[in-house]
Specification:
The chain has 367 residues and is α/β, with parallel strands linked by helices. The chain folds into two domains: 230 residues, Alpha-Beta Complex (Spore Coat Polysaccharide Biosynthesis Protein SpsA, Chain A), CATH 3.90.550.10; 109 residues, UDP N-Acetylglucosamine Acyltransferase, domain 1 (3 Solenoid), CATH 2.160.10. Strands 1, 4, 5, 8, 10, 11, 12, 13 and 14 form a nine-stranded mixed beta sheet that branches. Strands 16-17-20-23-26-29-30-31 form an eight-stranded mixed beta sheet. A five-stranded mixed beta sheet has the order 18-21-24-27-32, with no helix packed on it.
Length: 367
Amino acid sequence: MTKAMILAAGQGTRVRPLTKQLPKPMIPILGKPVLEYLIEHLARYGVRDIMINVAHYHWKIENYFGNGHRWNVNIGYSFEGAREHGEIVAKPMGSAGGMRQIQDHSGFFDDTTIVVCGDAIIDLDIQAAVFEHKTKKAMASVVALDVPREQVKNYGIVVADKDGRITQFQEKPSPEDALSTLASTGIYLFEPQVLELVPKGKVFDIGSELFPLMAQQNLPFYAQKRHFNWIDIGRVTDYWAVCQRVLRGEVAQMDMPGTEVRPGVWVGLNTKVNWEKVNVIGPVYIGSGVSVEDGATIEGPAWLGHGCVLRKNSRLVRSILFDYTRLSEGAVFEDLIASPQYVVDRLGRTTYPGDETSTLRWGDARA
């Protein structure tokens, strides 16, 4: 039976401030952590035993998912950290190093394992990927997609022969240096012996260290070029774009929660909205406990988390409000992501409360 390894120990620095107090896989889409969609997808294909490596804010992942029984899976965790000056601090071991740590501890990886990054939305046919991996008698397989040449600098790039056997692996090359445009999606299939190549007790990365080593040693290492939805949340602009696509209904298996009270408008429980005195253009989700005051406008795609408040004549356009965010009277928020602690635009530029140079006015709906 195929097992799974979810990589979730990274700091998520490229999506700050979203990860200021949250592990990256816990960033919500439609009110659910990205990691939850991934676990649901694995369960859908019969993957029952899942290991997750954790580090930064590890307890937020562990407390939410527990032993995994709510999703009909078994989840275990491997913390990567150390005690320094009397405090426990996160110290990620690298994607391969983290797997070696688990293997040394328990020998968990005793069968074909699918390895996935905890911060992506996928609808990969896992059964087909495992079948191809085993048919080719691969030690490791990389699920890959073609990307435009100008984007190769964002990905690990796979160079393969006509049979798909990988001859080189370039980690984020420049467009000029890239030898192909076939990008690794961060989804891998490993046999247990792969981990014997990883040094024990050392930080070691899959893309920049393990894969070049496998290619150099001419091991049975293959690329699988597959057609599927792969939504990588690498930067704030990616997150904003993903939310817009999801709200427009463009992503499979991600359905709006709540009740559709009018075409394209969904609401949760205990909302306070006088529909005759507000202007709401879908697609919009209004979460539980939200108050929308008279004269307010919401233009979708937009999401209001639970407990949010829109004051009179405020305007929310193509934006995401995290839980308990309050827009001040007359405030205009367009193409933004907002929480009580910060506002960030689609390019990652952040504003904090008290910034007198900003025209944005918002706060905490609980206070």
